[in-house]
Amino acid sequence: MENDSLSVEQCRAGRSYLGWTQQQLAEAANVAASTIADFERGQRTPVANNVRAIRVALESHGIAFINGGVSYALSWTFKTEKRTGVFQATFHPESAVAVLEFAAIFGTVEPGKVAIKNPQRATPELKSALTDYVAKFGKVNPRLKAIASLLGGLSDDEYFLVLPASDFSTEEQLQQELVLQKLNNPELQTFESEHQEFFGALLKEYNTHVPNTVESGAIGHPVKADRVCRFCGGTKAKGARFDRVAHAVSASLGSHLKLHDECDVCNSYFGEKIEPTLLEVLNVARVFLGLTNRGKRPKVSLPGGTLSNDGELMIIESTALSSEESGALVANLGSGKPLRPQDVYRTLVKFALSVIPEVHLPDFAKTINWLRNNEHQDEPLPMVAAALVLLPPSPAASIVLHVRKSAASRLPHVLCEFRVGPYLYVYALPFSQRDSWDLVGFFDTPDFRKTFRHLAAVPSWSLQDYSSPHEIPLATRIRFEQRAGQVAATG
Fold it and tell me: DSSP assignment, residue 228?
């Protein structure tokens, strides 16, 4: 069964397993209650995005769709101080004994009741019992080997947690990490009160998602037959192809994170029409940082010269050098292709929609139309805030998403932090159906600055307008000046 399909019977059965009302399922899937009611009555089939959201909501709470039917799956999250692993066991009559044996390693099993102890310690006895279990049932569920490796790599008697779910808020995850940190490192000083003071309001209002762009990984469905393009809804059954490698964040910015759920047509569109605009804006930054793409360092050719990086230094070759009265040297490299400022914003939004958890996509149907189909170009867009921030170096661009928990608020539904080296861009995803206004001016509102205290603490922000859909030239000019025995460059 394709991952975007769901029958009326499966919807009813999955909801029944969980003991949910139609309203509870609607809230979990971020759809209207009438959508669930009409679907289960057979009056109408929801649009593809809503069907997908309903299915994801059920699956994230333990429902497994197997061979056209429905089963209930027990999920355990194993959280260590440094890593997290999720193990799921699906209940079938013939596998119930195996599930109970697994639970007995971490707790007690009584008729009609399974009790998991917390916190756990990785004792030699526990590791041995888990090794024996994997030898017995590892072929049935290959995920067991990953959990055995996770716990087997812990020091003897190191603390870890076994939790009955995997869908935790950022605030809950932080509390879990603090518990393990205190248990495993009682001699270390923690800064819980300071962290709460600085990030408490943010954790109360938002969940935070931080995808790993440095290491090789992928978002979405590995099996092509299960893929649904995030941007056009295309599937293999509908004729879409997923043969090309798509990146969630441009590979030209050093990212290794791939997106399975992006069809070849959308991949070509973004790679040829949209993303080059942001790369043009970041030419100096990515050459200066030496961000590699498939092992190759960037080289930029412009009418007035070239920019390159030899692995240690940024090399500027210019045919148009001039000096100022102050003694500063200026390299005028000229203008490349004209660009549309709105495409800079669209590229940033594309990166965010590539990594946002799938369950949130239905809220951004209008955003995706603006991004993919050039609709709503004349509607107002909020500014993008930019700043230079001294952060630890990274070999790839990174992105952080803050997703608001509450349905109604004047705070942006999704706020993004996109970073390339010291260059930090902060922006809201426009046109979310969970925003009640256009977000123009959100960055300077008191509620925003009170909630995002770590951003308000940055001393200097430049609010940049990327709303224009009309092409403009972009000139590259690099200025060198002598400062106390060193040369500083500004672009």
Answer: B
